[in-house]
Amino acid sequence: MSSKIIKMLFVLVVFFLVSYGLSSLLKSEPILENKIVMIPVQGTIATGTDLFNQEIADPSLITDFIKQANEQENVKAIILEINSPGGTVVASQEIARAVRQSKKPVVAYIREVGASGAYWVASASDKIVAEPLSITGSIGVYSGYLEFSGLFEKYGVTYVDLKSGEYKDTGTPFKELSSDERKILENKLKIIHSIFISEVSNNRNIPINVTKQLSTGIYYLGIEAKEFGLVDYLGDEEKAISVAKELANITDASLVRYKQKSSFFDLFNKLTMSTSYNIGRGIASELDFKAKESYLSIRT
Amino acid sequence: MKLKKNELNFMFKPKKKILTRRSFAYILDILIVDMFIVFPFKSFLEDYNYIINFNFDFKFIVLVLVVALLTLSYFAVFEYYFNQTIGKLILGIKTISRKGRLTFTQALNRNVSKISTLLLILDCLYLLKKTNQRYSDKLAHTMVVDKDEF
Known about the structure:
The complex is a heterodimer of chains A (300) and B (150). Chain A is α/β, with parallel strands linked by helices and 300 residues long. Chain A has helices spanning 2-27, 59-71, 89-100, 117-123, 149-154, 179-204, 208-214, 222-228, 237-248, 264-286; strands at 35-42, 44-45, 56-57, 75-84, 106-115, 127-130, 135-137, 219-221, 233-234, 254-257.
């Protein structure tokens, strides 16, 4: 019996050596040596999940991708493929921070839209490549909500306000915003805006007064952004790859696109949610309601 | 003696039910395969953990095939030479042929479904017939029995 066990262990060791040998062979393969990783920043930048399964650029996932790319020796550069109208402040800042802290060169490639928070992320990269007719910039902060006080008044509904702290219910949709409260909220937006401007100014080496002039919240086309120094190059994916190679000081590399793995249950979940949502949309469109577009799109 | 159609020269019918032991043996074997065969490729498989390449990635396909073949070889080689894998050894069960000595082809055929989880699940449905056989066992004329019973 014991000689059988020894033989089995010997065979197991042989298997291990064969696997190790084959993996070493693959490692020596020159094509696998240099890689450029493309990380998608698609959809609204926000934490958590969207109820209607719309695409969200999750900062935890993206920062994890950047971390993974930094840990892998044969990854020489990172390209962020940006197609996002922006998102929440904290989420955008998280990704921008991870981009700045990356040890590998990062190129932001703005495809269709890279505005607001997405531009914040792009500005933290080493270089930005934008499609000439892409939408970028929109360096501003926006907040808004539906306020129902008028509607309540119309139907004789009263809002009962119980609070401790004068401004505790500031921003509640059930009452009109007072001028004091408006000033408070707008002041907070100004603080965020000034931080946004300061970060873009530092990241892009544009004087702060110039950045302020560009930061009215208006969006720019790629060609305009290039003139203002908000992007470095105009071009497509090939251009982004070429810039990445230049920054990494390599001539050849294979492109690896990172994307979150979906399990069977994720796919099943998405399918049922998407189906339910689309049935709802279909019913709503029959009732003559229009779904609101998630971001501005320019069509020819 | 010429065999009649569907008649085997080996009429052993096992008495002990070993489904639980068989399941645990498989889990142990998968852990061993993971440690000794998949682990050296870990850095490559991690690279691909997050990716979907839009272009056909030949290297990744080759990598997956190599790992699958090595996994299949583990089961086939161990069962051919020792009638049991390490998992089966620990759980006290073994693989036998219903037509004399277990051949390498039989060992290979009965383990092919292990390269795919879906195939294996479908294969295991045959175990519901309580024959100590998966469907691939039936096709390969093999069965798994308690080591002391035969």
